[in-house]
Structures are given as structure tokens and as C-alpha cells.
Amino acid sequence: MNIRIISGKYGGRKIEAPDGTRTHPMGERVRNAMFNSIGSEIQGTDVLDVFAGTGSVGLEALSRGARSATFVERDKIAQKILAKNVVSLGAEQSVEIIRTSVNNWLETRDEKFYDIIFADPPYDDLQLSTVSKLFGLLKPNGLMVLSHTGRGEVPNLENGIVVVDNRSYGNANLTSFRREG
Predict the structure, then answer these.
(1) How do residues 5-45 score in pLDDT, each as one tens digit?
(2) If you compute the radius of gyration of the chain from its CA atoms, what whole number of angstroms results?
(3) Contact 28, 57 (CB under 8 A)
(4) CATH number of the domain that 103 lies in?
(5) What is the count of structural domains for the chain?
(6) What are the pLDDT digits (tens) for 40-87?
(7) pTM of this prediction?
(8) 146, 125 Cβ separation under 8 angstroms
(9) Residues 6 or more apart whose Cβ sits within 8 Å of residue 110
(10) What CA–CA distance (Å, rounded) separates 8 from 59?
């Protein structure tokens, strides 16, 4: 299966995705709507793509002008496809791939903080306690976009984190949070 990078310097280029249900790449329509709503914030940012799968979201951010992307993915097949996608786009200099679960990485990570975090956990296991820990990685005024099912579950908000947007696209919901700065 192939996924298209929508816009920017890699716009129109195809990246790979595993067949089956190993990952659930964000649909092009949802990804396009998300980037259209935050597009002005992407330029020059450091982004974190957790539960990264194929890397389509972080790679789209790089294509649209992000300075760097850190990907966290635990599935070995998805990791290989992600690494292949990074190389096929020539984005190796701007990318770091972390090959472990998000929860394990959070326990051992360095002190880097991010302008934008994309979290797209498996819909059958949203891992909201892990997702809520990600708020601590946001820079002041940083943005986190959580993709989840439309059942209304969101992580516990810590002090200084507010919901700034919530949109539904069929069975996909995008909730945006901002660290007040």
C-alpha cells in the first residue's frame, strides 16, 4: 500500500505502508485537514511523531517546513518501512527514529522538548496515561494533536494545557491541545 505526501517539498511523492492492520495510517483527507488548520505553525519547528507507524504525519510536517522530526515506533515491520520512507525522501539529516514503545522511551528520553507533537495511538488501545505524559514534552505555546476514535476519551490535562480544537472526520477525531506559554 502507498500513501501520498500531500504538499511541500515532498508533495506528490509516495511512501510505503504495511498491508493489513499493523498500522492505521491517517487518511489523506484527515491529514490534509489537520495540516491546513495548523499549517502556519509548521515552519522551522521540531516535531515529535509518536506511535509513528509509516511516519506519514511527521514526514508531511518535514515536507511542509519543519526543521526536524523524531519518530517513536515499537513495531519492527513499521520501523523498517519508516526507515525506508525516510531514505526514499532523502530526509535522513532531519530525522531521528526511536525504536521502542512510547512508554519505554518516555522513561529514558533526553531533555528535548518539541513545538508540535502528533500522537496517533492504536484505536483499540489509546494508552491515555502514556499520551498524557507527552504534555510534559511541549515547549511553551507548543501544540499536540491527538488522533483518536470519536468516543470522546481524552487524556487528563495537566496544568497549563488547554483544548484548542476538536474535529471529527468519520471515525477519526483530532483533538488539539496547547501548552499555555
Answers:
(1) 999 999 999 999 877 666 677 888 899 999 999 988 999 99
(2) 15
(3) no
(4) 3.40.50.150
(5) 1
(6) 899 999 999 999 999 999 999 999 999 999 999 999 999 999 999 999
(7) 0.94
(8) no
(9) none
(10) 10
Q: Which residues contact 42 (CB under 8 A, 6 or more apart)?
A: 35, 61, 64, 65, 66, 116
21 contacts 47 by C-beta, under 8 angstroms: no
Q: Which residue has the cell 522530526?
A: 69
| CA–CA distance, 88 with 108 (Å, rounded to integer) | 29
One-letter amino acid of 181:
G
Q: Report the distance separating Cα 2 and Cα 41, nearest Å.
A: 27
The parent domain of residue 51 ranges over 2-179
> Residues in the chain, how many?
181
Helix H, strand E, coil C: the string for the chain is CEEECCCCCCCCCEEECCCCCCCCCCCHHHHHHHHHHHHHHCCCCEEEEECCCCCHHHHHHHHCCCCEEEEECCCHHHHHHHHHHHHHHCCHHHEEEECCCHHHHHHHCCCCCEEEEEECCCCCCCCHHHHHHHHHHEEEEEEEEEEECCCCCCCCCCCCEEEEEEEEECCEEEEEEEECC
